[in-house]
TrEMBL record:
Protein's UniProt name: Cysteine hydrolase
Record GO terms (molecular function): hydrolase activity
Species this chain originates from: Ramlibacter monticola
Keyword Calcium: no
Domain Isochorismatase-like: 18-207
UniProt entry tagged with the keyword Hydrolase: yes
Keywords: Hydrolase
Source taxon at top rank: Bacteria
């Protein structure tokens, strides 16, 4: 067990039982010209976290740890799309509509792919998730349990929607979650700030937050014994 410098107190990191979970780093959310930008959001905020995510992913891969990538995605007939997502989305551009990079959040469309900078490698888990949370209607829980994973290190977007929802789902299932502050982002800065506060409030009620630097330092300690 290694202590990662985290809030609200040190995260008791057990690398052998930890997975890196990268939430929805998809072209449609991150890249200029995609769904996120078409809705009027400044995607540069999200693009800015990519180098830090790459550093963590590189270090995680170097020690052979389990990597899980998620994509927010739906079947082409939208049969797996929770009703709220269609009924209460942005009316101008809804899931399944034709967007600038293909149909919005539909599996196999160009915009639905993970950005090339963080492209999954063979052997890593790639999970299509129709919900905001990665545990809803997916095999994530069983895939983690079969590998005896007890801790999840989170990166990805957006902080207050799919990242936070997944952390809460994980917490209720008994996993310990650590959110990397500079590896997650929102189109709305106050929402990110509030989410980080909420996660670590009341003695880590949902989990811990730390910088990627703190995690990388811990991984260096593991590598050098
Ligand atoms: C994600 C969203 N991935 N904000 N989706 O957070 O709708």
């Amino acid at each position: 067990m290694i202590a990662v410098d985290a809030q609200p107190f040190a995260f008791p990191f057990d690398p052998a039982r930890a997975a890196l979970v990268i939430i929805d780093m998809q072209r449609d959310f991150i890249e200029p010209g995609g769904f996120g930008e078409a809705l009027g959001n400044d995607v540069r905020r999200l693009e800015a976290i990519v180098p830090a995510c790459q550093r963590v992913l590189g270090a995680w891969r170097a020690r052979g740890g389990l990597v899980v990538h998620t994509r927010e995605s739906h079947a082409s007939d939208l049969s797996d799309c929770p009703p709220a997502k269609r009924l209460r989305g942005q009316p101008a551009l809804r899931i399944g509509d034709r967007g600038p990079m293909g149909r919005i959040l539909v599996r196999g469309e160009p915009g639905n792919a993970i950005i090339p900078e963080l492209a999954p490698r063979a052997g890593e888990v790639v999970l299509d998730k129709p919900g905001k949370g990665a545990f809803h209607a997916t095999s994530l829980d069983s895939r983690l349990r079969e590998r005896d994973i007890a801790q999840l290190v989170f990166m990805g977007v957006t902080t207050e929607v799919c990242v936070q929802t997944t952390m809460r789902e994980a917490n209720d299932r008994g996993y310990e979650g650590l959110l990397l502050e500079d590896c997650t982002e929102s189109y709305f800065p106050p929402f990110k700030a509030a989410t980080l506060e909420m996660v670590r409030a009341q003695g880590a009620i949902v989990g811990w937050t730390a910088t990627s630097g703190a995690l990388l330092e811990a991984l260096r300690t593991v590598a050098h014994g």
